[in-house]
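S1.2 Input.
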Amino acid sequence: MTAATPPLVNASVSTPLMSNYGRQQIAFVRGEGCYLVDAEGRRYFDSLAGVAVNALGHSHPGFIAAVREQVGTLVHTSNHFEVPLQTALAAELCQRAGMQQAFLCNSGAESIEAAIKLARKWGYGKGISEPVIIVTEGAFHGRTLGALTATHSATYQEGFGPLPGGFVRVPYNDVDAVAKAASHHAGRVVGVLVEPVQGEGGVNVPAADYLNRLRALCDQHDLLLMLDEVQTGNGRSGRWFAFQLNGITPDILATAKGLGNGFPIGATLAAGKAAGVFQPGHHGSTFGGSPLACRAALAVYEALDKEDLIGNAERQGRYLVDTLRQRLAGNSKVKEVRGLGLLIGIELHKSGKDLVPRARERGLILNVTADKVIRLVPPLTICREEADFVIDTIVQLLQE
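S1.3 Output.
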């Protein structure tokens, strides 16, 4: 009788979790407003907010009540059936964004994948068999293969080739470069995909007329303007969506993060020539737009509206940027303070990674992205006293 083959065991594996993340050695057990609490009961102000996710902060009573009620009513049925809450959320999204149709999914990366497929399908209808989407340097659009290819990071991409084709990269905040690429690939370009503000790339804020000029260029060449508002959307910019500051409308809009306040949900919106492109069978999602996910998102939008959290994001964001600029003026470590609403970056001359544990020791959770940029994305519920704590702590850290 042949002995059974023993299972393969990798002796180097020391944890049941895959080692995808360089985690900080701290775990939180609950949240209260803008604060996280660890197992020892110590409170930390959360200026990371789940990476711009917890728009309402932690334990928001209206959000909790809505989710609890929905869990006890209906969680999931699938998209084989009508989902009234999905229709209600799509209508709310379209109304707030000035768009016409919505596809609901589970994450920002999925919303970008849907946007890519939608643009390619639109191009296919025009007879374009090898479509090209223009993307930018410094971009971050997600980690699924299409979104990863659109992302500009050799670190994220290394080891995952071959990546899909169909993308052309140009400098960010350079409309002339987009125009040159559109002309060079004439007859193949279907869209231009950009972030109104690059978040992961370093909180890079473009010229005030950047989106307006891109909109005009896309109209001139019959291209789709595709905006990634995964991070800037849902009130963080001080508007429902950042593009509204420019008085334009994109053809395709991708969003997620703050939409669910921690519950996984994303959306891809379409308007104009991009609306009506997807038909049954073209795209789908098993979990996308479940009753529970939609109820969570609707609760977020209700709170954003009733509690004037978008106005608060604009006011507190301006206060944070203005005060940080004033108090950090002349600091040799600081290159620039910039931002839009409650998406704020403090660019340093050298790496700022050491600031993360030092800030945590002082009760402040923050993030450093692009190696040199302190990124502040606190809950939209932040008050002036809390903003002052963030400012005082960062100023002290950078003066040491």
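S1.4 Remarks. The chain has twelve helices and 15 strands.
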